[in-house]
Amino acid sequence: MSAQPDTPVHEVAHRLRPMAEADLPRIHRIELASYEYPWSLGNFTDSMSAGYSMWVREAEGEVIGYYAMTAVAGEAHLLNLTIAPIWRRHGLGCDLLEHCLACARDHKAESLFLEVRISNTAAIALYHSSGFVDLAVRRGYYPARDGREDALIMKKDLTC
After folding, report:
1. Dihedral angle at the C-alpha atoms of 123, 111, 66, 36, nearest 10 degrees?
2. Is residue 115 annotated as a catalytic residue, yes or no?
3. Which of 40, 61, 91, 107 is the most interior residue, by most CB within 10 Å?
């Protein structure tokens, strides 16, 4: 399935499962279609080898989104959360983020941190709507066409 189905997104069979090495070619295609400076296949394989929490969202058997998170010493860090471009704006990113938050809690994390490009207003809005707060700006964190782009550091407390 290379295009969004004619069936409404909420009627398509979805499931979440741990990422497998066999998923990496599709994940990398989504990554390349999503970002000017994407993660490499090596970034994904290294993260899998390190034992990070890595999950995929499938629709009718095809990977349409994923996330990578690490959790240690009471803190979790969301490294990458991506929905394939044609599947965006249907709440799937929000659902994937909620799963990530639950996974972080399962790892006994008290907080989840992330960095996001200042220019990624859609992602920032998603994170704000999920209860993340702005902590700081990390200057020149991301590569950009004209040099470097700042990252917004965000945090969500996971304890009551």
Report:
1. 40
2. yes
3. 107
Among the listed residues 52, 66, 67, 127, the single catalytic one is 127
Which of 62, 115, 142, 149 is catalytic? The answer is 115
Q: Where are the beta strands (DSSP E) in 51-132?
A: 53-59, 62-72, 75-83, 111-117
**Cβ-contact 59, 87 below 8 angstroms:** yes
In DSSP terms, 63 is beta-bridged to: 58
Q: pLDDT tens, 33-87?
A: 999 999 999 999 999 999 999 999 999 889 999 999 999 999 999 999 999 999 9
At 80-101, the pLDDT tens digits run 999 999 999 888 989 999 999 9
Q: Is 127 part of the annotated catalytic residue set?
A: yes
Q: Measured between alpha carbons, how far is residue 21 from residues 44, 51, 66, 93, 105 in Å?
A: 9, 13, 13, 22, 25
| Relative orientation angle of helices 41-49 and 24-34, to the nearest 10 degrees | 130
In the DSSP assignment, the letter for residue 89 is: S
Please, which residues have CB within 8 angstroms of residue 84's CB and are 6 or more apart in sequence? 30, 33, 34, 63, 64, 65
